[in-house]
Design goal:
Blueprint: H1 3-13, E1 32-35, E2 38-41, H2 44-51, H3 55-66, E3 70-73, E4 76-80, H4 85-99, E5 110-115, E6 118-123, E7 129-131, E8 152-156, E9 159-160, E10 166-170, E11 173-177, E12 185-194, E13 197-202
Parallel strand pairs: 11-13
Antiparallel strand pairs: 1-2, 2-4, 3-4, 5-6, 6-7, 8-12, 9-10, 10-11, 12-13
Helix pairs in contact: 3-4
Length: 203
C-alpha cells in the first residue's frame, strides 16, 4: 500500500469533524405550564431527544437542580412549585454542561454510559472520557449558603451552557455567567438565585 492510499484510509477512519463555527446542538425551547402548585414541562421528550439522553434522566436532573420533587409520565414532566421558562432553560443548560458537553473539545458528540456504577461521558469526536460528578443538593437549615444574592465571588468557569454562557460550580449551586469562557477565573456578582441555580454577571 503506497503512502497516498494509506493516508486516504486513515482519513476515512477518522470521526467526522464539525464545520468551523457550526452549531452542533439544537435544543427546543422548554414549554412550561403552571398547574396550581405544580409546573409542567410539556416537551421534555423532545428536549431529551435533541440531547440524545433518556427523558427520565433529564427529568431527575432537573428535579435536583430545582431542589424539588416531581413526576414523569408519558413525555410530560411535573415539578412541585412554581418555575419560569428561564428556570427550565437554566436547568437544561446545567444538564448540557454536566452530561452532554465534552470537557476536552467542547463538542456535544458524547455518549453517557455507566461503568462499575459510575456515570461516564465518552466523546465520539475526540475520544476523551470522564466521570460525571453528581452534585448533592442536600443542605441543612443551619448551613450557611455558599452563594447569596447581591454578593461577589471569585469562581472558575468549568463549562459552557446551551446558550454559550460560562458555567461555574460553587457548593451546591450551578452559576451561569454571560460573557465568561471555560477556563477563566473571574469575579462575579450574583443577581438572582432559583433553587440550586444562580445567575450572575461579571463584576
Amino acid at each position: 500500500m503506497n503512502y497516498d492510499a494509506a493516508l486516504d484510509r486513515a482519513l476515512d477512519e477518522l470521526p467526522d469533524q464539525p464545520r468551523e463555527g457550526g452549531d452542533r446542538l439544537s435544543v427546543p425551547d422548554p414549554v412550561g405550564q403552571t398547574d396550581g402548585a405544580f409546573t409542567r414541562l410539556t416537551n421534555l421528550d423532545d428536549i431529551a431527544s435533541a440531547l440524545s439522553r433518556e427523558s427520565k434522566h433529564v427529568h431527575r436532573t432537573i428535579q435536583r437542580e430545582f431542589g424539588t420533587n416531581g413526576q414523569f409520565d408519558g413525555g410530560e414532566a411535573r415539578y412541585n412549585g412554581s418555575f419560569s421558562i428561564s428556570d427550565f432553560e437554566a436547568a437544561i443548560d446545567a444538564y448540557v454542561a454536566e452530561y452532554v458537553t465534552c470537557s476536552e473539545c467542547g463538542l456535544p458528540d458524547t455518549k453517557l454510559t455507566t461503568e462499575d456504577g459510575v456515570d461516564m461521558l465518552r466523546c465520539e469526536a475526540c475520544g476523551a472520557f470522564r466521570p460525571v460528578t453528581k452534585r448533592s443538593t442536600k443542605n441543612t437549615q443551619t448551613d450557611r449558603p455558599t452563594v447569596e444574592e447581591g454578593k461577589t465571588y471569585e469562581v472558575e468557569i468549568t463549562g459552557t451552557g446551551r446558550e454559550g454562557d460560562g458555567v461555574a460550580e460553587k457548593g451546591k449551586y450551578t452559576i451561569f455567567v454571560p460573557g465568561a469562557q471555560e477556563g477563566d477565573v473571574v469575579t462575579i456578582y450574583i443577581e438572582n438565585i432559583s433553587g440550586t441555580l444562580a445567575f450572575a454577571r461579571l463584576a
